[in-house]
Amino acid sequence: ASINEYYDIAFKVMLLGDSAVGKTCILVRFKDGAFLGGNFIATVGIDFRNKVVSVDNLKIKLQIWDTAGQERFRSVTHAYYRDAQGNLCFFILHFLAWLTEIHEYAQKNVVIMLLGNKSDMAAERVVKTEEGEKLAKEYGVPFMETSAKTGVNVELAFLAIAKELKHRA
Ligand code: GDP
Ligand code: MG
């Protein structure tokens, strides 16, 4: 994909969640199809990647913003919420704290999707599937379990949010 890849419509999507849940790995998996395993490199500040996906016959450019979840970076993040149309990867850990942030800073009709990552680690997972499903139901948002390591559901999660963004646009 070139820098000038054709698209019909563009949306900005934020990846939000606590540190080390796998936001950067999910983005790398989606963009490059690879797993950034091994060393944990903390994202400093904010970085973004573009990727064009097809929904029906429309080319949708997702401008995906990777954020640092650490408390000390939150003030940096706030400015980026305002013009984001979508928030993917609301990892379940501290989901409510993130939801409060979105409600405070994001657009009113923002699209939210809850993701539980590291589904490949079933046994040692911090948050169980049922908890994720329950939370998502309670707050009326879609829930998906992903793995940046195996790639399971990563593309589907981004496609799902692209679809919803298109639907609401
Ligand atoms: P971030 O702080 O949310 O950006 O988290 P990172 O993407 O840097 O990932 C934190 C750590 O979790 C790294 O050591 C990754 O290799 C690991 N990790 C990320 N996603 C997965 C996953 O789906 N499965 C497994 N097993 N490890 C993962
Ligand atoms: Mg990161």
TrEMBL record:
What molecular function terms (GO) are annotated for this protein?
G protein activity; GTP binding; metal ion binding
Output the GO biological process annotations, alphabetical, semicolon-separated.
protein transport
E.C. numbers: 3.6.5.2
Could you say which cofactors this protein requires?
Mg(2+)
Which keywords does this chain's UniProt record carry?
GTP-binding, Hydrolase, Lipoprotein, Magnesium, Metal-binding, Nucleotide-binding, Prenylation, Protein transport, Transport
Q: What reaction does this enzyme carry out catalytically?
A: GTP + H2O = GDP + phosphate + H(+)
Q: Which family does it belong to?
A: Belongs to the small GTPase superfamily. Rab family.
Protein name as it appears in the record: small monomeric GTPase
Instruction: List the source organism.
Output: Myripristis murdjan
